Amino acid sequence: MTSVDLTGRVALVTGATSGIGSATATLLAERGAHVLVAGRDADRGEAVVSVVRERGGKADFVAADLSEAESVRRLAREAVAPGGGHVDILVNNAGVFPFGPTEETPQGDVDAVYDLTVKAPFHLVAELAPGMAERGHGAIVNVSTMVATYGVAGMALYASSKAALNPEPDHVIQKKTAVIRFSSSVVPE
To answer: Which Gene3D superfamilies did the record assign (predicted)?
Structure first.
């Protein structure tokens, strides 16, 4: 497999303080991107940044609470500063997954899951995609799940929130003449 050289690119990865987000941030840095590790926990975020730097990569931690729109928009505005004025790659990875029967799901859980998994990516795209379009390049990756395409008992809330992130493969954002393509959502195995 040929790896893509991302030298000079800036990647913002949400939920990057652990799991898939951490692995994604590390891989992007290994390929040359300056990675902005976004998450709530500064200690875990700085640990990811340290790993990236120890391996010769470039990374910074950006504290982020993705539970409300203004905080998400602030993250996007603040992310461009350590990124040299731009973000070229947005990886919407952050998510929560309370499992259980639909009829027993508290409204607070529904709101929390949709705020983080659906609304936060929407607001990040709204803030960052116009700059990508103006520069004529960019990538937006939504991390999803295979249960977004079929039913699994106890996973309706999580699956429905991830399904909302799955654009049609040809979904694009157009501004002027530049086109930013969304990836087909990445579904980890």
So the answer is: NAD(P)-binding Rossmann-like Domain
pLDDT single digits (tens) 82-105: 878 899 999 999 988 888 999 999
Q: How far apart are CA 95 and CA 89, in angstroms?
A: 18
Of 158, 159, 165, 182, the active-site residue reads 158
* Nearest Cα residue to 179 out of 119, 114, 135: 135
Name residue 164's amino acid. Answer: A
φ and ψ at residue 129, rounded to 5 degrees:
-65, -35
Domain carrying residue 33 = 10-181
Residue 96 has which token pair?
């929560």
Contact predicate 97/158, CB 8 Å? yes
User: How far is 6 from 127, CA to CA, in rounded Å?
Assistant: 22
Residue 187 belongs to some domain of the structure: no
Q: Is 114 a catalytic residue?
A: no
Confidence of residue 168 (pLDDT cuts 50, 70, 90): low
pLDDT on residue 145: 82
Contact 61, 46 (CB under 8 A): yes
pTM of the model: 0.88
Domain count, the chain: 1
Write the DSSP symbol of residue 12: E
Between CA 25 and CA 15 the distance in angstroms is 10
